[in-house]
Amino acid sequence: MFEKSRLLPRDDWEQDLIDLELLREAEQLRKYYHFMQISYKQSNVPFTFILVSIHAFDELVHRYGVDVMKDGLMEMHKYLVQEKGSSNLIFRLPTKHIWVLLVPKSTIQEAVLFLENLFQNTPLISDGQNANICLYLSGCIIETVSAEMDMEKIFEVGKTHLEEALQKGPSQMKVMKYNE
């Protein structure tokens, strides 16, 4: 005889759905990152892997009309392996709440400067005292130049970012720097 199942309060069901969504997106991050590692090892082209708020970043792209973006894993693979990183393209790989950006620079500092220059010197990172820290680009910045970073760390940092995106909304997330 089966036990009568206990119905969870509504808040718990909502939390379960959020957790499931986070797990799906974190798993998507794992797949993206694994694919990038493979492409990186085949090409040896330096790049920095960045997670940003999808809404905030799209607002910047719309505002400044940046046209150096391409979408998709296969386009990114072609750029790294066949074209050997011959241009300053940025690749965007989507999940529901974030863009995964592939920036063709070898360090976090260079990648952030590159993005800031694209957006007419809009400050993207600050010491936490500046209100602009969360206004446009927000999320965690992960350097993967060596392509040797621990996948569990990528998973945990990405999951934390997604949790903030769901709970606070993109305009109020704080920037997290990792491995800088």
Strand percentage lies at 5-15%
Count of alpha/pi helices: 5
Q: Whole-Å distance between the termini? A: 57 Å
Counted up, domains total 1
Strand order of the largest sheet: 2-3-4-1-5-6
Structural classification = alpha/beta
What level of helicity do the residues show? 40-55%
What general form does the structure show? Answer: globular
- Summarize the helix and strand pattern as letters: HEHEHEEHEHE
CA radius of gyration? 18 Å
Which residues form runs of ≥5 with pLDDT under 50? 1-10, 125-149, 168-180
Number of strands: 6
Which sheet architecture does the biggest sheet show? 6 strands, mixed
Mean pLDDT: 60
Q: Which features characterize this protein?
A:
GGDEF domain-containing protein, disordered C terminus, 14% strand, Nucleotide_cyclase, 6 strands, disordered N terminus, 47% helix, 180 residues, six-stranded mixed beta sheet, alpha/beta, 5 helices, globular
Question: How would the blueprint of this fold be written?
Answer:
Elements: H1 10-43, E1 48-53, H2 54-64, E2 69-71, H3 73-82, E3 90-94, E4 98-103, H4 108-118, E5 140-142, H5 151-168, E6 176-178
Parallel strand pairs: 2-3, 5-6
Antiparallel strand pairs: 1-4, 1-5, 3-4
Helix pairs in contact: 1-3, 1-5
Protein name: GGDEF domain-containing protein
What's this entry about, in short?
This protein has 180 residues and is of the alpha/beta class. It has helices at 10-43, 54-64, 73-82, 108-118, 151-168, and strands at residues 48-53, 69-71, 90-94, 98-103, 140-142, 176-178.
